[in-house]
Amino acid sequence: MTAPHERLRARLGDPALYLDDPADTAPYGRDWIGKYEGAVPLVVRPRSTAEVSAVLAACTELDVPVVPQAGNTGMVGGSVPRAGEVVLSVERMGVIEAFDEASATVRVQAGVVLEALQGFLAERGCDMPVDLGARGSCRIGGMIATNAGGIKVLRYGHMREQVRGLEVVLADGTVVEGLNILRKNNTGLDLKQVFIGSEGTLGVITRAVLQAQPAPQAFQTALAGLASRALLPPLLQAARARFPRLSSLEFVDGATVAYVREADPELRIPLAGEHGSYVVIEEECAAGEAAGEAFAAGLESLLEDGLIEDAVIAGSEAQARAIWRVREAPTETVSRRGLTHKFDVTVPPGVIPAFLGEMETLADGFPGVRAVLFGHLGDGNVHVNMAQEPGLADADFRAMEADLADAIYGAVHGHQGSISAEHGIGVMKRAYLPLARSPEEIALMRTLKAALDPKGILNPGVILGP
Ligand code: FAD
Ligand code: MLT
Ligand code: ZN
Prior knowledge:
Layout: H1 4-12, E1 18-19, H2 22-25, E2 43-44, H3 49-62, E3 66-69, E4 86-89, E5 96-100, E6 105-109, H4 114-122, E7 126-127, H5 140-146, H6 153-156, E8 163-169, E9 175-178, H7 192-195, E10 204-211, E11 213-214, E12 218-226, H8 232-242, E13 246-253, H9 254-263, E14 277-285, H10 289-304, E15 310-313, H11 317-337, E16 340-346, H12 352-364, E17 369-376, E18 381-388, H13 394-399, H14 401-414, H15 433-436, H16 439-452
Parallel strand pairs: 2-4, 3-4
Antiparallel strand pairs: 1-2, 5-6, 6-10, 7-11, 8-9, 8-10, 12-14, 12-15, 13-14, 13-17, 16-18, 17-18
Helix pairs in contact: 1-3, 9-11, 12-14
């Protein structure tokens, strides 16, 4: 019997629509962290909604399973094939179609790269307030499909909060066009919400209308050192009160900064000495000296209260970038040094210090594993990276995943936290979904899946499992 991808290739006919040379398709089968990898028999690369519709209609008719892919920076294994599925990449759907000045909304195709959108909006005095380290690679379709968070959630929310309208193609090729630009449109079910965060399991997002925000006149950015991680919760409380336009509050554990420094001696830490914990504080503000003085006074008060022991304020964009590097470098370091089991979790902010201690103790029980700890303090979002140390064989490291996950999710559950803060469920966390959602919620998810994708061709196994 002909393989599914061969049936699809024969149906598509036009070789301009797909890649099938293994040298071309292989990169679509490896995820960004280098942990998930699968064979890719065919990559379909539509340029329009009509082409996506034709491809999905054929896939449903011919029983061809499909993995939707955008920038392939996802961290839970949902963007690459697992069992020879065809990849449907939206990378050629990169058009920023329209900007509506009065509503400050922008209509884009799903393949637009975040950084390109940020640049487009900056030229119009606006900003896309979801920002993340993958900005140069992640694409709007993937960000909506994962409901991405990032470094400004505490002020602007996740991707979900930015989406005004959505166009989605269902598994059978039906185009559901809901490209609403209105803030108020209370006309029955808000259907787009079903697809935001659905990780490619219910439909392929082809276009979106996003709400832009006025670009801040200026930013104040600081790196502060804390004597101990125990001070993180009171610092969060104080920062909220003292920086009224706080847009980011991020932390990196002291041991993680030391680890990154050791792995990358070129990394410049723009703060003298060693600290128990580091935080990046960023506030949006008006241009001019007064805003700078108010920000410095806020930091001074944190020093006086003993919440921080030192701080440096960026005096230029280059210095701000150097500060942000301290926060963003650990992600690159762990992926460069070996494999990592990444656990993106939320716990109530007050228990973060205890939780970080538990994660360190846990790693100590797994020889060859190091806990690399950082995250979005303002959201209670801890990125627990259990990283492979040199000397531990890949197979042995991979075999530890279930034990690590059981222990970490058990601790998270005990603290009334969430097993996924912002990365989603993918294939990595599907076995743990019952820890986060009730049986009735999971049953309703299955009902929706069966209604929208009765043959189960869209991202099989993601979120709900086989
Ligand atoms: P992909 O990885 O291609 O896909 C992700 C999921 O969406 C997959 O399940 C895929 O099947 C599905 N999908 C993709 N496109 C579509 C579509 N058009 N229609 C339907 N489904 C689709 N995430 C955060 O939330 N916050 C962070 O701070 C953050 N920082 C990161 C930093 C780095 C350096 C990296 C590498 C990743 C980071 N991430 C972060 C992970 C994050 O999930 C992604 O970067 C982003 O949201 C995924 O976008 P993508 O275009 O790469 O999607
Ligand atoms: C981050 O906040 O840096 C990301 O979500 C990526 C990661 O978890 O490494
Ligand atoms: Zn994050």
